[in-house]
Structures are given as structure tokens and as C-alpha cells.
């Protein structure tokens, strides 16, 4: 099998799994509303700075990337 095709199939499957986890996990892990995320609310304005959420996603993606390189 062509390596590019194999990579696209793996990435597509990973995106499906991530999407399903995001849908189900959103009830248990409220991304964007974690402690440490900054929310500024004014009368007619709401601004989100999801700092902790970005750090958490970065750590998870780094771990997944490391595991892919480890088992490659």
C-alpha cells in the first residue's frame, strides 16, 4: 500500500476517534471552561482565553506524537 494512502487512512481514523471522544467527553471534561481558563464578561461582551485548555491539548498531542514515533 502506498505510504501516503496509509497515512491518510490513519489520520482519518484518528480524526473520527477524536471527534467521537470530543462529543462524548465534552460532558465530562468541559474544554474551554476548565479552572484557569480566563473569561472576561462585560455588559454586552464575553471574551474567552482558554489557556489551561490549550496547555492540556498540547500535552495530549505531544504524548500522542511521542507514542507514534516510539512505535513506528
UniProtKB/TrEMBL annotation:
<feature type="transmembrane region" description="Helical">
    <location>
        <begin position="47"/>
        <end position="68"/>
    </location>
</feature>
<keyword id="KW-0812">Transmembrane</keyword>
<protein>
    <recommendedName>
        <fullName>DUF2905 domain-containing protein</fullName>
    </recommendedName>
</protein>
<keyword id="KW-0472">Membrane</keyword>
<dbReference type="InterPro" id="IPR021320">
    <property type="entry name" value="DUF2905"/>
</dbReference>
<dbReference type="Pfam" id="PF11146">
    <property type="entry name" value="DUF2905"/>
</dbReference>
<keyword id="KW-1133">Transmembrane helix</keyword>
Amino acid at each position: 500500500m502506498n505510504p501516503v494512502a496509509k497515512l491518510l487512512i490513519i489520520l482519518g481514523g484518528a480524526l473520527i476517534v477524536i471527534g467521537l471522544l470530543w462529543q462524548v467527553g465534552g460532558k465530562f471534561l468541559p474544554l474551554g471552561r476548565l479552572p484557569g481558563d480566563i473569561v472576561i464578561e462585560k455588559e454586552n461582551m464575553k471574551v474567552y482565553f482558554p489557556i489551561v485548555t490549550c496547555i492540556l491539548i498540547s500535552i495530549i498531542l505531544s504524548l500522542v506524537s511521542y507514542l507514534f514515533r516510539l512505535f513506528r
